[in-house]
């Protein structure tokens, strides 16, 4: 997860910085703000986990990183770096609240299959980033990229006009996604089921694919010595004895991983 998150972070800096299609001031500001927002959001999310749950988690850190990246994307090259810090704080706290608190209290959200919490990390964080861009976009940076004369955020004298444009754009994206994704899923549903049956969901990957996706000792699974070649010693010679004796000789121990 950490390796994947790092690759995602690196790639995100690439396409945010590459959005102007040139090595210019806007591109450099976008790369800087992308990293600052992601780091701030990661730290904010981790601090909230420690405060409310007593310990940090890798999953929480990566979720915070992702919400920071999503939030800064609309205004990566349009806001000052101090504003990227502010956006990172909001990105690490608002989606955290919707995921950890609001989601568990909403009967509708609890019925939605969203294993990766995409609604919170992308929909909530993306809408938040769009609104904050309408508030914090600087006229100097906006003038470099916008073909419309005189755009600026509400905090720079732009009034509510730019925020309204951001909300209108977000509303269009929401409606477009609902309509087009529904049509795509209805088309796919004509050929394959869109959801596994409940009995297969309860069993897990074994039922669907006949193989284990993860084998973590301590989560209820047993290490099956007959499926792993544990009969050879360090020098490659075959050892005698029961599977339990051979595992004990290897120093194998059960590991409990709480996610």
UniProtKB/TrEMBL annotation:
<keyword id="KW-0812">Transmembrane</keyword>
<feature type="transmembrane region" description="Helical">
    <location>
        <begin position="115"/>
        <end position="137"/>
    </location>
</feature>
<protein>
    <recommendedName>
        <fullName>Ammonium transporter AmtB-like domain-containing protein</fullName>
    </recommendedName>
</protein>
<keyword id="KW-1133">Transmembrane helix</keyword>
<dbReference type="InterPro" id="IPR001905">
    <property type="entry name" value="Ammonium_transpt"/>
</dbReference>
<keyword id="KW-0472">Membrane</keyword>
<dbReference type="GO" id="GO:0008519">
    <property type="term" value="F:ammonium channel activity"/>
</dbReference>
<feature type="transmembrane region" description="Helical">
    <location>
        <begin position="82"/>
        <end position="103"/>
    </location>
</feature>
<dbReference type="GO" id="GO:0005886">
    <property type="term" value="C:plasma membrane"/>
</dbReference>
<comment type="similarity">
    <text>Belongs to the ammonia transporter channel (TC 1.A.11.2) family.</text>
</comment>
<dbReference type="InterPro" id="IPR024041">
    <property type="entry name" value="NH4_transpt_AmtB-like_dom"/>
</dbReference>
<dbReference type="InterPro" id="IPR029020">
    <property type="entry name" value="Ammonium/urea_transptr"/>
</dbReference>
<feature type="transmembrane region" description="Helical">
    <location>
        <begin position="167"/>
        <end position="192"/>
    </location>
</feature>
<dbReference type="Pfam" id="PF00909">
    <property type="entry name" value="Ammonium_transp"/>
</dbReference>
<feature type="domain" description="Ammonium transporter AmtB-like">
    <location>
        <begin position="4"/>
        <end position="214"/>
    </location>
</feature>
